[in-house]
Amino acid sequence: MRNYFYFIALCFIFGFHALSAQTSYKVGLGERPFIDLKKVPESAYEPGRFLIKIKPEYASAINATSVMDADGGGIHFGLTSLDALNQQIGVQKTKQYFYSPAFNNTFTERHQAWGLHLWYVMNYDSRISVKEIVEQYRQLPEVEVAEPVYKKHRIAQVSNLQDSGQENGGDEGGKSTNWTPNDPQFSSQWHYHNTGQQSGTADKDIDLPEAWEIEKGNSNVIVAIIDGGIQINHPDILGNLWSGIGYNFVNNNTTILADAHGTHVAGTVAAVNNNATGVAGIAGGSGSGDGVRLMSCQVFTDND
């Protein structure tokens, strides 16, 4: 299930990257993967909440200001079947799922082009199971998608912000390339360049030194780390941190709270290369300020 959400996040990121700053956007949506709700355990989704996406042809009928509890009368979209089921289920609160004050309405046109404004998260208070409710909403003529709000979990933990999580390795050997960074822990990063260190298998790696012969990084590229917060004063990250730093989507403010896992992921992407410090990053540059820029999009805290 977590892989599904990482897939959706990647589609979200790369989809927006492909768009130009114009008033019209070419939208190409892929097929949504089918999930058999009968096989989804209750522990995989949040209780009392679910998602719906309104069909585009009904978008103009929705009055955004009226999608709220009107004088205790329940949630009203201005769509007959949907409003009736909302009242029957006891929906108490709703909001646009992809809305955030961080956007400051900057991407309104783009969100509409991709249909993100049609997604709503619904909160209800009843004993009816989320799965049963989702099945009911799927039958409505106004609803294109209905699904649970799946929980997100980290795949790994890292115990120390300053620790890259790598073990010390042995001597260099095996493949030779024209350029390698002077970062002291690079020889331990066997997944970049495996020489058989740590009793591993030589050349079982991502051929990063070979890739560096083509590209080491690009300061015009901003990579969003959607994870725990990056330690923004980390000596091996600071040089490649985006000037805007990022946003804390947990607390809805610009204060990034340092997190071990988010910092580790950021370091893998773009720890500053060739600075005689710590580890190397995949797109960390050559040491002349040409690494990709890291944006911290904090969606986790230290307690998940």
Rg, please? 23 Å
The helix/strand series, from N terminus to C terminus, equals: HEHEHEHEHEEHE
**Could you say which structural class the secondary elements and strand pairing correspond to?**
alpha/beta
- The number of helical elements comes to 6
Helical content, roughly?
A: 10-25%
Share of residues in strands: 15-25%
Task: Quote the distance from N terminus to C terminus.
Answer: 17 Å
Low-confidence stretches: 1-22, 158-176
Q: For the residues shown, what is the average pLDDT?
A: 82
The counted number of beta strands is 7
User: What is the topology, as strand order, of the major beta sheet?
Assistant: 2-3-1-4
Architecture overview:
The chain is of the alpha/beta class. The protein is built from six helices and seven strands; from the N terminus they run αβαβαβαβαββαβ. Strands 2-3-1-4 form a four-stranded antiparallel sheet, covered by helices on one side. Strand 6, helix 6 and strand 7 form a beta-alpha-beta unit. It is elongated. The relative contact order is 0.13. The model is unreliable at about 1-20 and about 160-175 (pLDDT under 50).
